## 1
Amino acid sequence: MRKYKLSNTKVWESGKDESTGNDGSRKGGSESENGAENDGRSDENICEKFFGFFIKFREDLANIIDKNAIDENKGIMKALLLGNREEIDDEEISILKVCGLSHIFAISGLHISILGVGVYRALRKKFMITPSAIFSGLTILLYGIMIGFTVSTMRGVIMFEIYMGAEILGRTYDRINSILCAAIIVGIVYPFGIMGFSYQMSFLATIVCNFVLDIIIEFLKADGTIRRIIFSTMSINMILLLLVADNYYEIPLFASLCNIIIIPFVPFVIGIGFLGLLTFKITFFSKFLFFIGGGLCGLGINILRKIADLSNSRMICGKMSMWQVILVLIILSVYIIVCKYFLMQRENKKIKTRDFNDYKDKRSIRIIKDVTFICVYVLIYFIVSFYGIKNGNCSEGLFMADVGQGYRSEEHTSELQSH
């Protein structure tokens, strides 16, 4: 085979390729072009190896859970820790949806804060702020890559990285700027996801928890742990109810009750789950941790199963009218503004009297505040589910059954009933 040198590029004219043994297979091809192709392949190989490492690492962590966790609860533990929902029973998924708890499997700020803050605080006992923050931030970034950057995961990772950056620079962590930065970056990565339920729910829940919730809890003076859990859960569900009903045309009536029962134990289960993964070499200790975590998961599923079996556990509200949306927004806005107004009045009174002690409300005032909150809560539920209550036994209706993420089965029935 003859070679001609043209501008530092070797070109094969014809004949048998000496390197491959194929006749004419590289006719007219250039080494420069093949080099570029090889460079592209090398880049692809690097990416494949990089992401393949995390896929393999995730599989190794799943194997640790398989070896140490209880068989009945392996799927739930994998979903909570690794975001892997493939092994969860369909019945369990249905129960969690009916009870308004499917959000606990979304790897978000809760999981990231438990892992990231836990690592950061552990390192701070031995190291300075900068190396501790860098290592913690890197850990969460790699954890996000391993899990996969969904909307909620990406938001949580971005906000945590900003928090670590503030620690390194010695600046105050600003929640508003952090949420705005996360919203912009996630919107750029998922431009069509802005109108999606996951994006809206993730950021609305974050805004409620960081700003609105503080106003309501401070106004109610829910200082005790039990009161704080109850009113926090009811406040979040009350505000997010409009979004849930608008997307799914149904509302879980016992969502607040289920969240009050289950949510306080979720951080504990996630925490001991991560600890069980870290101590997998100490087999008996890791099995003990997964036994506790899995046992709590099983107990929680059994409780939720009883609640889901109750009649009217879900109310089919249908598509809401504009008057419903506007009325709910007005009620929520007025209630939050009134709460803020009384808080400002309380602060002004402290300044005038120079008495900055935070006294408890009288029993009668506390009862009035609690009853008012419950009335607002019930009123919003009633407005959102108005057509579901009004048409509870109509002659013609439409039953929509949620059969998976983004899928529904439709069935026309003689009676529209809430299930």
Note: Confidence is low (pLDDT under 50) at residues 1-37, 393-419.
## 2
Amino acid sequence: MRIFLLIFLCFSSAHGNYVEPYDFPSLTPLQATLSAGLIDGDQGRSRSFRFGTPRDLPASYRGRRDYRYHLYQQRGAAPLIFIHVGLGGDSNDGLGRYLAELYEEAGYHVAVLGSTFTSEFAAVAGSSPYAGLAHIDAHDLYQVMTGVRQHLQNRGVAVTDWGLLGYSYGALVAGHMAEIDGRHGFFNFSKILLLNPPVDLLYSLRGLDTYYQDYEALSGGRRAELLFSWNHLRTELRDSFRIGHFQTLLRRSQLSSSSLRAMIGYNFRQALSEVVFLSQEMVDMGLLGEGGASRRRRQARLFGFESYVTHCLARYFTDHAEGREVWRRFFGNRSFSVDFLNQRNGLRAVESTLRNNSRITVMHTDDDFIMNSSHYSFLRRALGSRFLLFDGGGHLGNVWHPTVRSVLVQQMTSAL
């Protein structure tokens, strides 16, 4: 298998080690990014267990006391790969299912874990109802994974080794979990694969806010047309994603770059509004005003990612006793600031782990909108030959490509 990898790695650049042969089709970064939200896979089996002490949850969340994950199980003993999905996705996320099916076919058990940046995770397993800090989320998810491991053992699932894959924000959290596992060694992951992680979280979130501005600029009628186009694409490609069919649908829809940015921004924003709403239901900082749930949900939709950091998180960690206690638990006596928060929750915070843990590989595209040139340079310096770069694909919009599928499997089979 290592010979196979050498066939693919042909040359290096200032940004990273480009993988070839890789004949990516004629798609813009925005079109490619859109494709990542349209692929799907087998659902696996939903599993759930009670985790920790149940919180005092709002009425609308009281049915969500169990932690839920999706399991893809082999008949006998096999290595298990944890897949941590991207921002706002649950354990039934389409891209997570797609990757799980890929690895199941390669002979692995797979457990798909929902994003820590969801109201569900904050309600059931979070240290606080305020999600979105990778350092804290990683500690919380690591505890959850120990529970999943025990749950699997109780059900007789024979696991011979452990792997970890995260994508997008899930990859950032996985990078922090690699640092935690390096100290505790409960899993001692033989392979950790990070797909399109953000390096600077606040930079990436600002990009999502900018994309959402394209959606806000649309009239009500144009928004309805855009959502109709999105649902049409999902219906057409639901059973089987084929790149030729996707390109045909794009040509027919004639979606502009602004419309594509609006689609991407809108889809990411949905997860945020639910997190804001739950956080205020559980620890009300007065950010949504008075009124019933419907009115407060409307107010929650007004928050962007950056304002969530500068208003919700800042108020919680500085003005509320519970928030100050959570802050001290993870960051000691360091004073709260947005700059420190961003620094401690990016990938640079775990640079020594990325540099020294030879079992970590990062796969990225060279046109991802959540990145800039300094981010690519950082990854190349930290990882060297373990930073694999693809010429085109936007944000996760190349995982369906045959070369990428092969490298994804090879990276795991070379270690597990």
Note: Strands lie at 9-12, 17-19, 45-50, 66-72, 78-84, 109-113, 159-167, 191-195, 360-365, 387-390.
